[in-house]
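Posted in: Structural Biology > Protein-Ligand Complexes

Title: Requesting predicted complex, zinc ion in pocket

I'd be grateful if someone could produce the 3D structure tokens for the following input. Sequence and ligand are given below.
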Amino acid sequence: MLTLRNIKVWNTDEVIDLVVPSAHAGLFAEDGAATDGDVDATGLTLAPGFADPHVHYRDPGQTYKESMVSGCAAAASGGYTNVLVMPNTVPAMDGEPVRAGEPGASEVLDAGYGTVIDYLQHYGEAHDVALPVRYDLCVCASKGRAGREATEFARWRRYMPGVDDETKDAAQLAHPVTAISDDGSAVTPATLDDVFALAKESGLPLIEHCEHHDAGAVNEGSVSRRLGVPGIPEDTELRVVERDIAKARETGVHVHFQHVSTAISFDAIRRAKAEGLPVTCETAPHYLALSDEALLEYGTLAKMNPPLRSEADREATVAAIADGTVDMLATDHAPHTLEEKERGFLEAPNGIIGLECAYGVAHRVLVDGGHISDARLIELMSVAPERLMGHEATDVAALVEAFSEPAPNEAHGGEPDGPGTGAESRNRLLDLSRVDDPDAVDLVVLATDAAWTVDPERFHSKARNTPFGGWDVTGRPLATIIGSGLAFSRLHA
Ligand SMILES: [Zn+2]
Ligand SMILES: [Zn+2]
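-- Reply #1 --
Done. Output follows.
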């Protein structure tokens, strides 16, 4: 049992005492961190757990980069309690039966499962491991993510929440398919109509990698010319955004745009929202913190897709957060080995990892920069992405109202005598063992003002590909709580 004294509720500012009755089966803690007893949490904030609608865990098929185990550990240590796993696994997560002999097939077939989705839903059983975060799965838009033919609804309909639930085991119920995407590539013109029809029929959001280019490796501009690397024009993003806005208008399908990076795309999305169209979007911390100038300092650790854009686009991204055009933050956590990243601008794979420093980097840029409040950043990282996946973030204030015990001074008519600890506390007490549905309570404990330096060597991810190593940031997750159980701690008593 862990008791956090004097912790502040993120959106009411009420200071409470919180009892976390037990450990999650996947609990892990950093060296010397508290997992039970009393912790003085004065100055810390209790918020709904973060959710990341965009992670790549490379499992099955490329587990030398990341695995479900290391990816989920990275998420828990970054304050996340739920993630949406993108479908560019090997084989791809398209609902089709895995064929013996195709790359990555043995990991799925040897474990006794017929599809990648079956395998990932039962990952804990297959590997006898308890993963310390929740995860949903995102099914491919096209078969094999090849862009030639849309996936078949009949192959994956049963994985959706609410479909034949009475026949499902606990793992199937816990890890449903809640979105459609070909992330890594935009939906192709050849499959566009069929994919929108799939989204319409299923009712799931289409999560679009809204960017397509046939040539180029970094943003087109003075930096690409200086490096002598072929550039990617800014309208490679806008063309897909505009195309899909038109399809959203025509079909009513909810389109969620991933990792939006340019001023002109934000303008288009702003207009679509003003029109009342069902579109949402995310951006990632690197588009807030870095421009293409970062290529000069960090080399391929700043190579991603879409590419880091101009300083004006970076400023437009911050502005789109501040004015509400951006609905949520995602990391696009994309693990690669440093050997792969050392192949030069043309050959190195795109992407960086993000789960373990996203909050600190975003907090430094957005909250320290005076653009949004602490509470708004928490909404962008928890409430909004949970909603995209069809879930409701934990309502901490409602739990306090419904289930906390009155403060001792209220109960006994005593006079308040300033903040106390232990038996003298005059805070209301929320004991998570007493709530109606403890399994549904997912929380993060944040030190919103903590200054710390990003050290990739201490990441729980297998990967180290980040440009943020050595960055001084503020804001750090100290513990995650899943289903009322402590799943991760770097709290100190
Ligand atoms: Zn993408
Ligand atoms: Zn991605």
